[in-house]
Amino acid sequence: MNNKITYHKEGDYFIPNLYLPIQPKKQIGKYGRLRLNYLKNFNKGLYTELLIYGTLKQHLLDIDKCANERVHVLMKQFAKSENVDEYLKEHHQMEWVQAMNNIKNRAEEIVLNEIIYV
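Above: the chain sequence. Below: its structure as tokens.
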């Protein structure tokens, strides 16, 4: 990080040349927004630090990506261990939907406790 501050002169005053780092253009997803809400309400120190250094959006994007990947992996693992497969999807659609909703809810609960609310 560059800590050198430059100034420009306006009249009799020296004004610091301040700028924000270039922010990523990606949209923050569901888990990133949940993390933002958590930081604002329960971890104001980290929120302020990330905001001051200009790394808040990148942090939220990283959390969102990590959480989405973890949910996907957990869902695959749960589906495999519980024999929720294409056969069930093809022949018993409602049972498959119920099982997948249950699996998704459990995976999200794990991700929320492991990644988002830490």
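Helices lie at 30-42, 44-53, 56-81, 86-91, 93-116.
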